[in-house]
């Protein structure tokens, strides 16, 4: 097969061929050293196509040692522990390591009508600057759920997705990077919410302590005012009782003074009576 497929018809043809290969060979199984079933054939089919891609990184070729030709110093024998058929795989964390992590600013005030937990993921991604619709991880999800490979094993689905991306001229790393960027955006948004929660909790604790202190001071002040009022009432009662005793003595003196001149008439001087209230 030469050149990479570009049209949807060619891609559909490949996927159908993959489905046929995934069902396994119908002839007598080959010996174990040559076997592997449908998956083995399918992987071989994928590698064949993959090797023809111009943008694909070629695997390191291994030349077996011979008696007439010295072993290439850049090639390791197959039986050595350090031999590698494939080039080192780039770590997923390295895909976006040169990009600054997203950051979300916490709202200045806590708006009771705003629920930050219900913000859509699309809004979060957009706010974090994750805009890559051409190579979105959602496309990988859609390909994995495609009816063409929906009932195939996971390994077959992976090969099918790689074939589809090759036909499109893209690499799986671009879609993995999109997933990593979105994951970092979600982590950054969660971090903002966590920090915001701690800040609000600290402010709430400080505010409650302040109010409790104000309440205690207020109660102390009002307690003092109540004690003052009780003291005033007690003093007023004392004065009334003490004067009542003195008044009774004086009234008796006055009554005794005029009693001889009343000629048997009632003494008009009241002694020890309870005066009527003026507002009654």
Structural features:
single chain; about 280 residues; mainly alpha; about 0% strand; rod-shaped; disordered N terminus
Write a brief caption for the model.
This protein has 280 residues and is an all-alpha fold. 52% of the residues lie in helices and 0% in strands.
Distance N terminus to C terminus? 121 Å
Low-confidence segments, ≥5 residues, pLDDT <50?
A: 1-6, 21-76
Helices, by number, come to 6
Helix content: 40-55%
Taken in chain order, the helices and strands follow as: HHHHHH
Largest sheet: none
Q: What form results from the Cα inertia axes?
A: rod-shaped
What structural category do the secondary elements indicate? Answer: mainly alpha
Rg (CA only): 49 Å
Round the mean pLDDT to the nearest integer and report it.
Answer: 75
- Sheet-strand content, in percent, reads under 5%
Q: Could you give the count of β-strands?
A: 0
Give me the secondary-structure topology.
Elements: H1 8-22, H2 37-51, H3 121-127, H4 137-144, H5 154-168, H6 172-258
Helix pairs in contact: 1-5, 2-5
């Amino acid at each position: 097969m030469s050149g990479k497929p570009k049209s949807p018809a060619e891609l559909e043809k490949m996927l159908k061929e993959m489905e046929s290969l995934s069902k396994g060979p119908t002839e007598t199984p080959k010996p174990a050293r040559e076997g592997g079933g449908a998956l083995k054939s399918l992987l071989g089919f994928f590698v064949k196509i993959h090797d023809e891609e111009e943008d694909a990184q070629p695997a390191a070729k291994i030349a077996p040692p011979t008696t007439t030709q010295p072993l290439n110093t850049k090639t390791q024998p197959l039986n050595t522990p350090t031999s590698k058929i494939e080039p080192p795989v780039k770590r997923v964390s390295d895909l976006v390591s040169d990009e600054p992590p997203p950051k979300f600013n916490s709202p200045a005030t806590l708006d009771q009508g705003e629920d930050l937990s219900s913000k859509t993921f699309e809004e979060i991604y957009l706010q974090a600057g994750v805009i890559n619709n051409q190579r979105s991880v959602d496309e990988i999800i859609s390909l994995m759920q495609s009816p063409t490979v929906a009932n195939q094993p996971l390994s077959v689905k992976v090969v099918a997705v790689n074939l589809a991306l090759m036909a499109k001229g893209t690499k799986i790393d671009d879609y993995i990077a999109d997933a990593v960027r979105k994951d970092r955006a979600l982590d950054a948004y969660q971090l903002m919410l966590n920090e915001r929660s701690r800040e609000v909790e600290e402010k709430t604790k400080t505010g409650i302590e302040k109010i409790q202190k104000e309440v205690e001071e207020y109660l102390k002040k009002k307690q003092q005012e109540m004690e003052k009022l009780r003291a005033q009432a007690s003093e007023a009662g004392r004065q009334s009782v003490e004067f009542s005793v003195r008044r009774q003595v004086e009234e008796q003196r006055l009554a005794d003074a005029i009693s001889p001149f009343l000629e048997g008439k009632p003494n008009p001087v009241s002694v020890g009576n309870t005066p009527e209230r003026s507002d009654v």
